[in-house]
Specification:
Helix content: 25-40%
Strand content: 25-35%
CATH topology of the domain at 1-26 and 49-173: Ku70, Chain: A, Domain 2
Order of helices and strands: EEEEEEHEEHEEEHHHH
Radius of gyration: 30 Å
Largest sheet: 7 strands, mixed, barrel
């Protein structure tokens, strides 16, 4: 089933304008949502606003938005004032610079959207896709929508384009705020064993389909069983892991990796053996003729 567009946007590239359509990248059906219920009768609950001063329930019509500029002191902004501050939704992805793809750290990516070509923009759409692909660069742009201004990264993806909504610098907590103690020196032998473990389970590409959300699957299975009226037995908690010697843990891990590798290799060994025999057969025949 073809994806449904959630909006339009125009990529501004020099004097070139490329009309596009936006599509979400996520499958919303994968999320499991719960409603808050009253335990006495199972009825759904609704949220209310309660005034902290008079302790009365306040209707939404009697609420205003305020900014706390000092402890317990607020400056109130009217709906018209807030609307006047909104960014004008130009729906234009105005490319301001191009940077290497590796320069955009994944830490800054907040969400992503697919971009498909809109009517009349197919040629220019393909042009910027191919140009970025050959240069290895991605575009950085400003984008205004829904009253807000965003910074986005535009890059080629598969046969088309994708934009990543990025966080502003002030929205990212500095690494310096993370408390890191003085770290101990690592022995060369430990690094060597760690590298062997890494190399044994390394792959050339990332295959996301190999990974499943086991928690969601178990939760959905539990929900279905309860809907059917089945009795549920919860599995016991797994025992907590013990702290053991790092070198011994690395050696044990390497042994586990080797076992898994050996289990995967017999088929390959058999194939290589058969190939070797097929290559050796013509040589044996040639030797027999010479005799």
């Amino acid at each position: 089933m073809p994806a449904r567009s959630i909006g339009t946007a125009t990529i501004s590239f020099g004097l070139v304008s490329i009309p596009t359509k936006l599509y979400t990248t996520n499958e919303s059906s994968g999320d499991i949502h719960f409603n808050m219920l009253h335990d006495a009768d199972g009825a759904r609950l609704k949220q209310q606003y309660i005034c902290t001063k008079c302790n009365e329930v306040v209707d939404r019509d009697h609420t205003v938005k305020g900014y706390e500029h000092a402890k317990g002191q607020y400056v109130v902004l009217s709906a018209d004032e807030l609307k006047a501050l909104d960014a004008v939704a130009t729906q234009t992805i105005a490319l301001e610079e191009f940077v290497p793809a590796s320069a955009v750290d994944p830490l800054y990516v907040e969400k992503s959207y697919y971009l498909g070509p809109d009517k009349g923009g197919e040629r220019a759409y393909k042009l910027i896709h191919d140009a970025m692909l050959e240069t290895g660069l991605v575009g950085i742009a400003s984008y205004s929508a829904r009253g807000k201004q965003y910074i986005v990264a535009l890059r080629p993806y598969q046969s088309g384009l994708i934009i990543h909504q990025l966080r502003y610098a002030q929205e990212v907590k500095p690494w310096a705020e993370v408390p890191i103690p003085d770290l101990p020196e690592i022995k060369p032998a430990e690094i060597g064993l760690a590298k062997q473990i890494i190399q044994q389970i390394a792959h050339e590409t990332f295959s996301p389909e190999r990974y499943k959300d086991e928690v969601s699957e178990r939760m959905m299975d539990l929900i279905n069983k309860k809907v059917e009226g089945q009795e549920i037995t919860l599995a016991p908690e797994a025992p907590a892991g013990k702290v053991i010697d790092l070198m011994e843990a690395l050696k044990a891990s390497l042994g586990m990796s080797k076992t898994a590798e050996v289990e995967r290799k017999p088929a390959l060994a058999a194939e290589s053996g058969a190939a070797a025999e097929s290559e050796a057969a013509p040589k044996k025949k040639a030797a027999a003729k010479k005799k």
